[in-house]
User: Which sequence fits this backbone?
């Protein structure tokens, strides 16, 4: 029997007003000097609240910078500029700031606090950072956060499109876990049952209450956080990423204007679920209840790009077995795209 060791957050706060207690959380953890990495364009009121919270508990901001890009090179520059007496890193804002802060934490072995201001994907609590390396998008090993601080009121007031992206990335776990088990039966790929259960259960809790209110935001934050932990438990992205993510990755390389990851993955999840014959109606109902379909219709995708991405997807990650590995499903996809009434106005 193989012994495994996983890192999980020690501190988790998902509630209204959590941002105003950030300094208290640092003081309790005995972290008196922090580096604060923030998103560009972060609303001044959010930054002011974070800084006031730290100041109230006499937590020194030893280094502060706006994250200009989610590149490996920028992360390295921040790493080299950190004062030697820094005790922890705080990532505040959106995905770029959190990915860079998480990677710098991995390099320095310092505790990391993830403080997302929106919930568009599961990256705020996962063992990987999505960074560009010499212009190419890469997933690099990163630190799991010591603390996850989600002010649900702030996330509730984030743009609706970010809520929909989070819904799309969360529901993708349904098709991802199905693909994982398919790979076990076809190729003997090892499945960590606990990680699969953790990933599945969080999505179904969200489906039971898909309202965009404080409770719904709490459920979405919980689902995305536990999906990230499931990847750490499994030692791979399998609990959270399957054929739907391959399609999205292919689309990133084809579309000159890539869209929010969660929006792409959500549509891909709906399509893949029909190939898997697995929970299509449940996924469609969630998208209807959360406004996901309407959000896509406001800015439709290119049908030609999606067909090209679907054809390219099986070759994105050689050896990664999914439903797309079984046979050529291009004709099935074209039929679904042309005849499914739910997709009308989404792919044009």
Assistant:
């Amino acid at each position: 029997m193989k012994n495994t060791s996983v890192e999980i957050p020690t501190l988790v706060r998902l509630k209204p007003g959590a941002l105003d207690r950030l300094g208290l959380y640092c003081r309790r953890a005995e972290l008196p000097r922090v580096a604060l990495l923030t998103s560009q364009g972060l609303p001044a009121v959010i930054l002011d609240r974070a800084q006031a919270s730290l100041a109230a508990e006499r937590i020194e901001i030893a280094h502060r910078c706006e994250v200009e890009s989610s590149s490996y090179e920028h992360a390295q520059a921040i790493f080299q500029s950190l004062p030697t007496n820094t005790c922890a890193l705080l990532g505040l804002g959106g995905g770029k700031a959190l990915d860079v802060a998480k990677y710098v934490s991995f390099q320095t072995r310092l505790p990391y606090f993830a403080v997302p201001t929106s919930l568009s994907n599961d990256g705020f609590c996962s063992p990987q950072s999505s960074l560009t390396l010499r212009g190419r998008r890469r997933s690099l090993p990163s630190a799991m956060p010591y603390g996850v601080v989600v002010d649900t009121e702030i996330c509730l007031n984030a743009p609706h499109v970010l809520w929909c992206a989070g819904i799309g990335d969360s529901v993708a776990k349904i098709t991802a876990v199905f693909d994982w088990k398919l790979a076990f039966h076809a190729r003997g790929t090892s499945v960590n049952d606990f990680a699969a259960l953790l990933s599945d259960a969080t999505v179904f809790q969200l489906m039971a209450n898909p309202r965009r209110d404080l409770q719904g935001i709490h459920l979405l934050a919980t689902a995305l956080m536990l999906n990230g932990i499931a990847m750490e438990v499994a030692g791979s992205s399998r609990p959270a990423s399957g054929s739907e993510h391959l399609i999205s990755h292919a689309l990133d390389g084809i579309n000159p204007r890539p869209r929010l990851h969660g929006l792409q993955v959500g549509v891909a999840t709906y399509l893949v679920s029909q190939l898997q014959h697995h929970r299509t109606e449940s996924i469609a109902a969630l998208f209807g209840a959360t406004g996901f379909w309407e959000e896509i219709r406001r800015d439709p995708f290119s049908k030609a790009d999606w067909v090209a991405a679907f054809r390219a997807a099986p070759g994105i990650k050689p050896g990664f077995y999914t439903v797309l590995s079984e046979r050529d499903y291009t004709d099935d996809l074209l039929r679904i795209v042309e005849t499914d009434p739910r997709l009308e106005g989404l792919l044009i």
Q: What stands out?
A: The chain has two domains: 11-156, 160-343. Strands lie at 11-15, 33-39, 60-67, 88-93, 112-116, 128-133, 136-141, 147-151.
